[in-house]
Amino acid sequence: MAAMDIDEIMAILPHRFPFLLVDRIIECDDEKRAVGIKNVTASEWYFEGHFPQTPVMPGVLQLEAMAQTGGILLIKAAGLDHAGIPFFMSIDKAKFRKVVKPGDQLRIECEILKMRRNSAKFHARNYVGETLVSEAELMCMFAGEGKP
């Protein structure tokens, strides 16, 4: 059960502020499953317009947090230290069940359903506490060689 801090995540993913949406990995078996954390703070850039009186984390950013956690898992499962740029290929069965607000801590759980050489299909779930807030099946691939 390998954990990763933000510096280790940034050494693998090319994303940077304000679009890096995983603060740490608390569990990664390097083969099938990873669990990430996103601390949703009141100062997030998107709350200024989504929505000023009732701030809610956009669903598309919840999906992106899932994809970034899945990208880390894909890179680790492929036995790489880095993998160029991870790209979305598909999003299926997305469901948004509860709102995510400032002060929430998003726990992102990703499990590989199917893996190929440079792509994988994941089932991902976001939780706040024990409450399932969103889930989807995602497919992503990595392109390029070189360190991000």
Question: Can you put this structure into words, describing what you see?
Answer:
By secondary structure, the chain is α+β, with helices and mostly antiparallel strands. The chain has one domain: Roll (Thiol Ester Dehydrase, Chain A), CATH 3.10.129. The chain has 2 helices and 6 strands, in the order H-E-E-H-E-E-E-E. It has a 6-stranded antiparallel sheet with strand order 1-2-4-5-6-3, with helices on one face. Strand 5 and strand 6 form a beta hairpin. The two termini are 24 Å apart. The model has no long low-confidence stretch (mean pLDDT 90).
Q: Spatial order of the strands in the main sheet?
A: 1-2-4-5-6-3
CATH class: Alpha Beta
Which homologous superfamily in CATH is the superfamily?
Answer: Hotdog Thioesterase
Q: What are the low-pLDDT stretches, counting only 5+ consecutive residues below 50?
A: none
Q: What is the residue-averaged pLDDT?
A: 90
* N- and C-termini, Cα separation: 24 Å
Largest sheet: 6 strands, antiparallel
- What is the CATH topology classification name? Thiol Ester Dehydrase, Chain A
Query: Radius of gyration, Cα only, in angstroms?
Result: 14 Å
- Give the number of domains: 1
| CATH architectural category | Roll
Count of extended strands: 6
Chain oligomer state: single chain
What global shape is seen?
globular
The secondary-structure class comes to alpha+beta
β-strand amount? 35-45%
Helix count from the secondary structure assignment = 2
Please bin the fraction of helical residues. Answer: 10-25%
SSE succession: HEEHEEEE
